[in-house]
Design goal:
binds zinc ion; alpha/beta; four-stranded parallel β-sheet; globular
């Protein structure tokens, strides 16, 4: 009692100076940060799946250092710069687990065809006549521009001259798991699979330990490579601790052909060859049966589900619900812009992934919005083996983050931020993007690439490709 009175008197007498000292002390105690971004909602995708109203994220260097209520983050951190978006959702950057970015220059080259017709009659001939390092450079710039403006911060790529893709990813300030394609016929960057493996080894060595690029080995598929090449691709990946990316069971034809040839499914055949003995990203997995899914689970293979591509090429419907129930990591991918999608818009994939499972099971609860968003963020990170680094807004993770505006006709009113992200918001609503702590899109404008030059080059290449097919 006595002490309380005494301290109250002390407090009254020294009120002003004490308050001043408190301010000084709190400023001194504040932790330094490079950025604070605040938003009306922060969708964290952390383990308890917190959605914070009036939230903020503090970033120092390439890492997130704090996520919480804006008042709390503001009192804890002293940022060099800040971005306040009271009319936006902050969310983890979207993760595209399967694409061929450079193929943006073939956008819409041939539509409404089956995969094998599309590949053999259009894509493979067009690639033979046009693909060069410069083609890949401009195509990937176009793809990266579209992806970043649409909120994708990480892409998983398979193509030729993947070293050029990696250079462009770094120039764009975008994260990538980038696989050099190995295929069993002569292509622009290799006459034989052996050449391709040598080229890939140089590429893996060059980008090892890069802060943005994870180099990978990408044998195209079981039906375009010999068993020997597939085994060698796995061995090379494991020598460098690199992931292996491959198309698996995309069509019924692929399964029928392997059954006829080996009396096995593609998954069983790849497992028998040892291709899954190490980190693997399998694109599509549409025609996988229960035994295949058990293999994928046991080998911790990550699956890139590509709903637009599977719908457009009429490949079928991947058993996403079963794979998720088994605990297989399933992410979302766009596949290429050339005929199988025809864009790299992850907001579309979010929406379609949810709706495709609903309509094919006649169950509106089959894949809820929260599950779709998980697949495009932390689930995609698991597919790539990067779940400790990216996929959620949490202290300690890399700062890959987007701000999506909520002030347009398609965004109001708002009852549930996650539902809004999946079913109502569009790629065009992405306003700001940060990758690895660096802003790369500000107020809808790309900061790292020359948009005007890219669009002009795309038109130029379009004419060249058209002429080459005559
Ligand atoms: Zn593909």
């Amino acid at each position: 009692m006595h002490r309380t009175c005494s301290s109250a008197r002390w407090g009254r007498r020294f009120r002003l100076p004490t308050f001043g000292l408190f301010l000084l002390a709190s400023t001194l105690a504040a932790e330094p940060a490079d950025w604070i971004w605040s938003g009306r909602y922060v969708i964290t995708m952390d383990a308890p799946r917190r959605v914070i109203e009036n939230g903020a994220v503090a970033v120092r260097g390439d890492r997130i250092v704090g996520v919480g209520a804006r008042t709390e983050i503001d009192s804890r951190f002293q940022p060099k710069q800040r971005l306040d978006r009271p009319d936006a959702i902050l969310a983890p950057g979207l993760i595209n687990t399967h694409t061929h970015a450079a193929m943006s220059l073939f956008r819409g080259i041939a539509d409404d065809l089956k995969l094998q017709d599309w590949l053999n009659r259009f894509i493979f001939p067009a690639e033979a006549k046009n693909v060069s390092p410069e083609f890949v450079r401009w195509g990937t710039r176009l793809g990266a521009l579209e992806m970043l403006l649409g909120g994708t911060t990480t892409f998983t790529d398979m193509y030729y001259f993947e070293d050029v893709v990696a250079d462009v990813a770094k120039e764009a300030g975008m994260r990538g798991v980038l696989g050099e394609t190995i295929i069993g016929f002569p292509v622009a960057d290799a006459k034989t699979p052996a050449d391709s493996l040598r080229f890939t080894e140089g590429y893996l060595a060059r980008f090892r330990n890069d802060p943005l690029v994870v180099p990978a080995v990408a044998p195209h598929a079981i039906y375009t490579n010999s068993d020997e090449t597939l085994r060698a691709a796995r061995a090379l990946a494991n020598k460098y601790g690199a992931p292996l990316i491959i198309h698996v069971s995309e069509t019924k034809k692929e399964n029928d052909d392997e059954q006829a040839k080996r009396h096995m499914t593609p998954v069983k055949a790849l497992d028998t060859l040892g291709v899954f003995n190490g980190r693997t990203v399998a694109a599509h997995c549409v025609w996988v049966n229960d035994a295949d899914m058990a293999i994928l689970k046991n080998r911790a293979v990550g699956v890139a589900h590509c709903p637009s591509s599977n719908m457009k090429l009429a490949s079928g419907v991947a058993p996403v619900l079963k794979m998720r129930a088994l605990g297989i990591a399933v992410g979302l991918g766009t596949d290429s812009s050339a005929g199988s999608n025809n864009d790299v818009n992850m907001f579309e994939e979010l929406d379609l992934a949810a709706k495709l499972q609903k309509v094919t099971t006649l169950d509106p609860q089959a894949l809820p919005a929260s599950a779709a968003l998980e697949m495009a963020t932390i689930g995609g990170a698991r597919v790539l083996g990067l779940e400790k680094e990216i996929g959620s807004l949490e202290a300690g993770k890399r700062a890959d983050m987007i701000a999506v505006r909520l002030d347009r006709a398609n965004a109001v009113p708002l009852y549930d931020p996650i539902s809004q992200m999946v079913y109502a918001l569009k790629a065009e609503d992405v306003r700001d993007v940060m990758v690895n702590g660096k802003p790369v899109v500000r107020d809808g404008q790309i900061l790292t690439l020359d948009q005007r030059a890219i669009l002009a080059k795309a038109a130029e290449y379009g004419l060249k490709v058209k002429a080459s097919l005559k």
